[in-house]
Amino acid sequence: MKLPLAILVAALVSQPALAQRKPVAGFPDAPGKDVLVNKCFQCHSPNMWMDQRQDRRAWESTLYRMVGRGALWTQDEIKQMADYLGNVYGRKAQ
């Protein structure tokens, strides 16, 4: 009886770790991606960034707004995420 319980507990504990290792479609690899995925995807889906185009400064402002709503991020994490979003999801050239 203890062995099946141990297997169940091990499966449940490892599930979040496996989910975080899956590549996120539409998010190119670049510095700051891992921080963004680990911090923002706790509340938001990947689609949130697909259609938004802002420069780095606007992304940084958005991130600080999230801090005002309770996000617990360091200034370095905010910088990394703003750099990533500004480079990958910046304004399109017209």
Polypeptide structure, described:
The chain is built from five helices and no strands. It is an all-alpha fold. It has one domain (2-88).
Features:
single chain, 94 residues, mainly alpha, 63% helix, globular
Mean pLDDT over the residues: 78
How would you name the oligomeric state of the polypeptide chains in this document?
single chain
Q: Helicity level, as a percent range?
A: 55-70%
**Derived structural class:** mainly alpha
Largest sheet: none
Instruction: Give, in order, the helices and strands.
Output: HHHHH
The tally of helices reads 5
- The value of Rg in angstroms is 17 Å
Number of separate strands: 0
Percent of residues in β-strands: under 5%
Give the terminus-to-terminus CA distance: 65 Å
Number of domains: 1
> What ranges have pLDDT less than 50 throughout 5 or more consecutive residues?
5-21
Q: What overall geometry do the principal axes of the alpha carbons give?
A: globular
Short description:
This protein is mostly helical and 94 residues long. It has one domain.
Write the layout of secondary structure elements.
Layout: H1 2-21, H2 33-40, H3 47-50, H4 56-68, H5 75-88
Helix pairs in contact: 4-5
